[in-house]
Amino acid sequence: MRRFAFSIGASFAAYAACATLAMASSFGPLVTPSQLKAGLASTAPIILDIRAKGYDAGHIEGAISAPYGLFRGPSNDPGQVPALDKLEASYERLGLTLDRPVVVVSQGDTDSDFGAAARVYWTLKSSGFKDLSILNGGASNWANAGFAFSTTPVTPAPTQLSIQWNNAWTADTPAVNQIVEGQAKAILVDARPTPFFEGKKMHDAAARPGTLPGAQNLPYSQFFSPGATAIAPKLDVTALKVKLGIQDGDEVVSFCNTGHWAATDWFALSELAGIDNVKLYPGSMVEYSATDGEMANTPGLIANFLNQLRGGN
């Protein structure tokens, strides 16, 4: 399958174009370190530092520690969305409020790490937050820009929220089953590296290797230049639509193993390319493979055993 190269021009104009795709957004879906630094005083965003480690050693001044795990499921189904009351309680402890902009900051040391920020962004958007941004390149990019970190922890004042989940950007297992069985139509996009798509590798928590029948492989890494950890802010939308066969009105479902890499594809297609009706399947293949649903690219028992011996996990 031919790879498309997406322009990574980091001009202000490119970021401004992205901003028009996010309604009522202070920075747009992506913000550079310089833009965030310049807007801290005037915009007063809530900065969520989602790193599991590193916050105490240094974080953006005013940032709140909000580890990625707060937005994820248990080890046997990591992609699962936490119960709404649990999410609401977490948001309240973090001092979140719907009328302030939120900037999500991951470590940004690998292109895979961007998926954490994208997954948190998707979770917040689905919970009713509208003014959302991701610091492109994360804390690493902030440091590379020469900006200082603080070691003073922030204890937010608790808030009270009443949130509802908007299913506009969510595909669950029953919905995916309907697509696979031909009872509903959607373009299925597998965001995993090709060996996972081909069934040569599988996640430790997955029951079976393989992919969804009819799925196309669009590895999340295609949205990054080689070696880059910041996503390309400007995409060739026409090329993307042609590559995936997207027509106006089509539903698109992005999936991976646990809804992490798929969040990057969802973010690129929905928030950067501005394509309508793009959904994330949070449980993805770990959840789906545990059902009796049909799968494609599933090797036989001997081939699968040999794949795992070669490091398939």
Automatic annotation (TrEMBL):
Top-level taxon in the UniProt lineage: Bacteria
Alphabetical list of InterPro entries matching this protein: Rhodanese-like_dom (IPR001763), Rhodanese-like_dom_sf (IPR036873), Thiosulfate_sulfurtransferase (IPR051126)
Signal peptide location: 1-16
GO MF, one annotated term: transferase activity
Domain spans labelled Rhodanese: 41-151, 182-297
Keywords carried by this UniProt record: Repeat, Signal, Transferase
Keyword check for Chaperone: no
EC number annotated for this UniProt entry: 2.8.1.-
Name of this chain's protein: Sulfurtransferase
Organism this protein belongs to: Thioclava arctica
